[in-house]
Design a protein that fits this description.
Immunoglobulin-like, three-stranded antiparallel beta sheet, six-stranded mixed beta sheet, mainly beta, GOLD domain-containing protein, signal, about 140 residues
């Protein structure tokens, strides 16, 4: 019985020591940020009510250490939508070069009218957010 107790204690202590070991050789996201929009694809600038179309929002990222995280889609009011891609940065060393990635957003209007899409393109010299605007008419 004594041997079983000692063996059990050694197992518990070994597990505890192993769980406290620092293991920094994994990829960790270190930052999430709004990434400027480079381009946008909107298949139809005039569409019928009840139809869904896919908007594609593209941004450029550094190879190996950055990528698309998500997107933000805000209703400013019934007819204005503000959209931004969010990127992530990891603790990996960045490679030379860039690549383009993006978000696909389904838009299915519930009302007829003119819709304005504002895509985040960064900040101006005064620090204010700037936007690329696209219009869609829903009949």
């Amino acid at each position: 019985m004594k041997k079983v107790f000692i063996l059990s204690m050694l197992t518990v202590v070994s597990a505890f020591i192993a769980s406290c070991k620092d293991n920094d050789d994994y990829v960790e996201i270190t930052n999430v940020y709004a990434q400027k929009t480079d381009s946008v694809t909107i298949p139809m600038d005039t569409m019928a009510l009840g139809v869904t179309q896919e908007l594609k929002v593209y941004s450029t990222f550094t190879k190996t250490c950055e990528g698309i995280y998500s997107y933000d889609y805000q209703y400013t009011n019934d007819s204005v939508r503000t959209i931004a891609n969010f990127g992530y940065k990891t603790n990996e060393v960045c490679s030379d070069g860039t690549y383009v990635d993006g978000s696909r957003i389904n838009f299915k209007p519930t009302k007829t009218g003119n819709y304005t899409f504002k895509f985040y393109t960064g900040k101006d010299s005064a620090g204010a957010s700037t936007f690329l605007e696209k219009k869609v008419v829903v009949e």
